[in-house]
């Protein structure tokens, strides 16, 4: 009985040891690290990718450091964390703006429930390892019977030309004649150039050609993918019928464009002319009234232009009294009563009342120069009595003659108006 009991005790102890060993092995087992760590790049866009076979709630952490810092003996290297505890199996490194000509070290590890896998490191040099992209765009332009190819540089992540990072960037151009039969063999011609504008020579006129372009970096023998084909027809001498059609089309276009404007201008001209210069004129009696007819005595209406010309200074006009010259009547014209007067005597009739103002200002220039002013104190009643048988008008005229003869004479050069009575 003792033997079996010892055997059972030994088996129990072995079983316990086996359990503890298994538990210790499971506790000390390391987490599997990521595998197939690669870089996916294009110009200056960089993405670190990896694989992991296990399933579960696993996260990943990615760190970066320049390689020259790992070789520094002065201080321990400090890694910068780019992506921490992410569920994705890739990490974008574009925002780091990695130095294009430098060498960088990247590492990634997996984490599950607080346990971490080993770091997996990878060196990366953009100048050597980054893929080169094709040209951004290609434009074809006919240049006679040749084609002009304009190439736009590939761009970096900040939209700058890749020639700033790769000064020796060149372009590999491949072109061929496009055929109607797609299964026919095509002869490709190539051309390499470092400039952005290239002329494809020795092409046939009026023929379609297709062009594809590839970016090249010959120092590391890197080349991009070719662009999609761009096709263009070459030109040649223009036939006469095409020139005639172009000319005819230009004339028709010019006529269609110019006719509405010319017609509208002519219509405006006719409307203005009919408004400002009507064909229906004013009647003749209106023209005579307004003084528009030649020789009209009625003054013309003043226009704004004539009103501006009628500006003048004030003028004062003084009228000089008209002087009448009265000559003596011959004796045969005098009435009979006056013939009996003595030669040296004269008769005068003076009017002093205000109603006889019409005779004022009349002076006599006839008679002798040494005639004296008659004596007004002598009565003229006898003279008036001898005129009773005469006509009243003749008596009045004789009275005026006697009065004017008694006035002094005025020289003949002082504005004298002659009048015979």
Automatic annotation (TrEMBL):
<keyword id="KW-1133">Transmembrane helix</keyword>
<feature type="transmembrane region" description="Helical">
    <location>
        <begin position="240"/>
        <end position="263"/>
    </location>
</feature>
<feature type="compositionally biased region" description="Low complexity">
    <location>
        <begin position="355"/>
        <end position="367"/>
    </location>
</feature>
<keyword id="KW-0732">Signal</keyword>
<feature type="domain" description="Fibronectin type-III">
    <location>
        <begin position="134"/>
        <end position="237"/>
    </location>
</feature>
<dbReference type="Pfam" id="PF01108">
    <property type="entry name" value="Tissue_fac"/>
</dbReference>
<dbReference type="InterPro" id="IPR013783">
    <property type="entry name" value="Ig-like_fold"/>
</dbReference>
<dbReference type="Pfam" id="PF09294">
    <property type="entry name" value="Interfer-bind"/>
</dbReference>
<dbReference type="GO" id="GO:0004904">
    <property type="term" value="F:interferon receptor activity"/>
</dbReference>
<keyword id="KW-0472">Membrane</keyword>
<feature type="region of interest" description="Disordered">
    <location>
        <begin position="337"/>
        <end position="380"/>
    </location>
</feature>
<dbReference type="InterPro" id="IPR003961">
    <property type="entry name" value="FN3_dom"/>
</dbReference>
<protein>
    <submittedName>
        <fullName>Interferon alpha/beta receptor 1b-like</fullName>
    </submittedName>
</protein>
<dbReference type="InterPro" id="IPR036116">
    <property type="entry name" value="FN3_sf"/>
</dbReference>
<feature type="signal peptide">
    <location>
        <begin position="1"/>
        <end position="28"/>
    </location>
</feature>
<feature type="compositionally biased region" description="Polar residues">
    <location>
        <begin position="368"/>
        <end position="379"/>
    </location>
</feature>
<dbReference type="InterPro" id="IPR050650">
    <property type="entry name" value="Type-II_Cytokine-TF_Rcpt"/>
</dbReference>
<keyword id="KW-0812">Transmembrane</keyword>
<dbReference type="InterPro" id="IPR015373">
    <property type="entry name" value="Interferon/interleukin_rcp_dom"/>
</dbReference>
<dbReference type="GO" id="GO:0005886">
    <property type="term" value="C:plasma membrane"/>
</dbReference>
């Amino acid at each position: 009985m003792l033997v079996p009991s010892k055997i059972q005790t030994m088996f129990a102890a072995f079983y316990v040891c086996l359990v503890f060993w298994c538990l210790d092995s499971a506790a000390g087992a390391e987490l599997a690290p990521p595998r197939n760590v690669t870089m996916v790049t294009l110009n200056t866009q960089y993405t670190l990718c990896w694989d992991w076979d296990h399933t579960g709630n696993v996260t990943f952490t990615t760190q970066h450091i320049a390689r020259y810092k790992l070789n520094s003996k002065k201080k321990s290297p400090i890694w910068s964390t780019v992506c921490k505890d992410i569920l994705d199996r890739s990490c974008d490194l574009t925002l780091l703006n990695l130095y294009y000509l430098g060498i960088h070290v990247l590492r990634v590890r997996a984490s599950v429930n607080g346990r971490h896998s080993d770091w997996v490191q990878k060196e990366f040099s953009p100048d050597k390892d980054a893929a080169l992209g094709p040209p951004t765009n290609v434009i074809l332009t006919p240049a006679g019977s040749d084609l002009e190819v304009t190439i736009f540089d590939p761009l970096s992540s900040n939209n700058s030309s890749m020639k700033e990072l790769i000064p020796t960037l060149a372009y590999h151009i491949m072109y061929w004649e496009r055929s109607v039969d797609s299964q026919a063999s095509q002869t490709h011609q190539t051309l390499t150039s470092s400039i952005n504008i290239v002329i494809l020579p020795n092409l046939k006129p009026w023929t379609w050609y297709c062009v594809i372009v590839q970016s090249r970096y010959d120092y590391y023998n890197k080349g991009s993918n070719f662009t999609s084909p761009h096709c263009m027809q070459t030109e040649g001498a223009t036939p006469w019928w095409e020139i005639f059609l172009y000319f005819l089309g230009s004339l028709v276009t010019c006529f269609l464009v110019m006719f509405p404007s010319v017609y509208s201008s002519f219509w405006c001209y006719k409307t203005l002319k009919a408004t400002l210069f009507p064909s229906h004129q004013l009647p003749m009696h209106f023209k005579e009234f307004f003084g528009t007819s030649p020789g009209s005595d009625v003054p013309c209406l003043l226009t704004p232009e004539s009103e501006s010309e009628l500006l003048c200074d004030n003028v004062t006009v003084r009228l000089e009294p008209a002087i009448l010259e009265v000559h003596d009547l011959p004796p045969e014209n005098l009435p009979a009563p006056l013939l009996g007067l003595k030669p040296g005597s004269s008769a005068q009739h003076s009017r002093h009342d205000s109603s006889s103002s019409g005779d004022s200002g009349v002076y006599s220039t006839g008679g002798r120069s040494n005639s004296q002013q008659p004596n007004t104190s002598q009565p003229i009643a006898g003279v008036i009595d001898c005129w009773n048988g005469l006509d009243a008008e003749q008596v009045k005229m004789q009275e005026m003659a006697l009065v004017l003869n008694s006035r002094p004479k005025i020289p003949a050069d002082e504005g004298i108006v002659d009048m015979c009575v």
